[in-house]
């Protein structure tokens, strides 16, 4: 088996930039792409992608636009009516861009424009459907995930019509127990099947891992690219909180509100899932840190029960370290002790 030496990220206090707590909007079984009619308005919903919103972005937005186009063919009186997109995460921005490029008058209304999950995500393309998804739902995830992956390839190859940066192709090391869901991608020749390897970071420990070569999504750069396009297309971006559909004068609405969809739709299947991430700084040589790690290590809950903990590393900006998946946790309880636990297990993993 090939042995691969890697340079570890430095994670002492002088290398820590920011500790981020962020909530995923997860919908049980699968995200929601659907059309409803409420108070004489057409609402196209697109939310609930949990920890894989960037992964499914292009496929999901194109799917919701296909739903829109189908409906407009059947109701030509509504075509070309102005559209309101609610939400300025990656979903709202890409939806508004796609509509504007078709000549449809569109504006975005959003509570937060900078402080949104879409900027904070680690940037893994992780397409595995949830275990609870039905076979039809899993097939949809595979179809939309593959559509997204192909679009990210266009960005990487500089052939995308408007996004020009934010995607790189790098080695990705996954714990052999973690199945990121690339089998259908390999079947289509998009991702090479993984190679079992041993990695080490110059210290004592060696780890058996599966090595892929994958697209990494720098979500901060991609958000900047989406905003640049919004600006070029002169799409109005209005900071405001929407508390009911009635407030919106447009009769066609795209609901891209992420976690906000819970209050707006009453969808009981939305579960908040808290995540902890640490951004790094002062790394001596970023060119040596261009890889992804996604692994599990044995750990304990704060109450002492054994559990597996996760370690993510991604070369986002100067490096990002994660991660937690605390189901049901809201910002009310920040669980800041998770940062100490994350640093402790990362230190053991990378430096012993
Ligand atoms: C810690 C963490 C790590 C992640 N890592 C990854 C990863 O590695 N790979 C991956 O694919 N995905 C990842 N994700 C998931 C990804 O970030 C999200 O799925 C994606 O950003 C969701 O985008 P969105 O546009 O739906 O929502 P958001 O980015 O949350 O944007 C929602 C928008 O709606 C607005 N809004 C909400 N309610 C209202 C309202 N009532 N009125 C007006 N505006 C409203 C908000 O202000 C915001 O502008 C991660 C998420 C987290 C939290």
Q: Please, could you describe this protein's structure?
A:
This protein is of the alpha/beta class and 352 residues long. It has helices at residues 57-74, 90-101, 117-120, 135-156, 183-187, 219-232, 261-265, 337-351; strands spanning 2-5, 16-27, 32-38, 41-47, 83-86, 106-110, 167-174, 195-200, 206-217, 237-239, 252-255, 270-280, 292-300, 306-314, 320-322, 326-327. The protein has 8 helices and 16 strands. The strands form 2 sheets. Strands 1, 2, 7, 8, 9, 12, 13, 14, 15 and 16 form a 10-stranded mixed β-sheet that branches. The longest helix is centred in the middle third of the chain and has 22 residues, at 135-156. Flavin-adenine dinucleotide (FAD) is lined by residues 22-24, 47, 49, 51-55, 86-92, 109-112, 116-118, 120-124, 126, 241-242, 256-260, 264, 275, 277.
Number of helical stretches of at least 4 residues: 8
Rg value: 21 Å
What structural class do the secondary elements suggest? alpha/beta
Share of β-strand residues: 25-35%
Distinct bound molecules: flavin-adenine dinucleotide
What kind of oligomer do you see? Answer: single chain
**Topology as H/E string?**
EEEEHEHEHHEHEEHEEHEEEEEH
Q: Describe the global form.
A: globular
DSSP helix fraction: 25-40%
Number of strands: 16
* Poorly predicted runs: none
* Overall pLDDT score: 95
Largest sheet: 10 strands, mixed
End-to-end distance, in Å?
Answer: 22 Å
